[in-house]
Amino acid sequence: MPEIYLSLLDRILTPVLLMLAVVFLLAGHNAPGGGFIAGLVVATAFLMQILARGDQFVRRLIGTYLQPAMGVGLLIAVFSALLGIGHYGVFFQGIWWKISLGDFVLELGSPTTFDIGVFMVVSAFVTSYLLELSRPAERANK
Q1: pLDDT tens-digit series, residues 67-78
Q2: Do the Cβ atoms of 38 and 31 come closer than 8 Å?
């Protein structure tokens, strides 16, 4: 049975962790962070959910999406790494596009999409691992 303080921490920390993960993901190529760190932060948010609400809640919420997310993330990362071969003939060469939105210019590049792929793989894999770790504890409590 989840404790009340865990439920309170879950309600406070989960949105903060998810917003922090977005900042790490978007700023990560040029600053500390990146897809790997952002994925670990999201997995920590799901760990809070597992501790506060139980693993069955998290399994119902995202359980069926974890393996497809790993596959799609891996495809995005590999495709981003291969883009440099098509343009410059060099593996992992960054390609940048600029999207003008009025006065704001958004730069999107293959390093960013690579980080998104790594983020998807790491967050899905670690969350899946945490869900599997919660199974023996569930059996021991019965």
Answers
A1: 999 999 999 999
A2: no
